[in-house]
Amino acid sequence: MSKKLRPAQVRVHIRDLIDGSESEVQQALKLLNVALGSSFKLEIAWEDIFRDLKTSFSDDLDKLVPSIARHITIFVNRLESVLDQDEKFQEKFLEEYPSLVPILAVVIQAGPKTSCKIANRKITLLLPTTGTEGFRYAKTSVGTDITDLFKEEGEEEVTIARPAALDDADDEEEEDQDWDTVNIVPTQAHPPSSKQDTRTPIKFQDAASLKPRPLPKLKSLQRPEVLFVDLLPAFLTIKGTDREVWIEGSHAPTITLIAEYFKNYARKDMGDINQVSESSLPLTSYRYLPAIT
User: Fold this and answer.
1) Could you tell me if 119 and 199 are in contact, meaning their C-beta atoms sit under 8 angstroms apart?
2) For 99-135, b where at least 16 C-beta lie within 10 A, e where not — what string?
3) Bridge partners, 68 (sequence order)
4) For 60-107, how does the pLDDT look when each residue is reduced to its tens digit (9 = 90+)?
5) Are 53 and 64 within 8 A, CB to CB?
6) First vs last Cα of the chain: how many Å apart?
7) How many CB atoms are closer than 10 A to CB 190?
């Protein structure tokens, strides 16, 4: 990409967040190379990416490179995870590896989702043509089609529902995973013993891509002070005071998970001022909001 097309802000971010040896992108790539005994390198089509995304990021250009870096990191981590946990994919990858060029190419494509494929003998990550919010939503699709990289014509398509083992041998193994399977809340959902709400549900653009995805297991979440706030698989309304937090949402399992999470860290020792009291966490178990369909 020609430097004249790169604002200084973008160049600095590329240096620090993509090319820097201590960046998350390079650290993820290093782990992948160690696992494979390979030397994969990045090849990013910056000129095309900047040309197609500069309008979408015109108001927040400082988020362009961080958004791309996040997608690359997620993809590389998931590729390494699937290679480690999916024997079938691992065998196929090793079979095809000699014919691959050791390059992870990153290009731009039309559409709201992130996907991957083999192009010109390179593992290629295709970024969405969208803005900041679109990139946040598209994060949920990063790496979900990794197992289809070497899919032959006519072979059934398989997608990854979570960055963990794809095949669980039994219920006991399932308990060891960090992700729970959840069902999509029906469009018509109402709390018990209440009159039916006749409001017309809000229609969201590309709502199909926003269906709730697997939720993390409670034990896999970090303490509140270190938990990274990320995109949730449903829409939430959060209200709070200095003593209470109220959360309403369109997806009951999400509400339940949040309630259990906060209760898990609620104050047990009333003399400990660093913990909150469980009585000050009145989260609703469910409240009607237009569900995503």
Assistant:
1) no
2) ebeebbbbbbbeeebbbbbbeeebbbbbbbbbbbebb
3) none
4) 888 899 999 999 999 999 999 998 888 888 889 988 988 999 999 999
5) yes
6) 41
7) 12
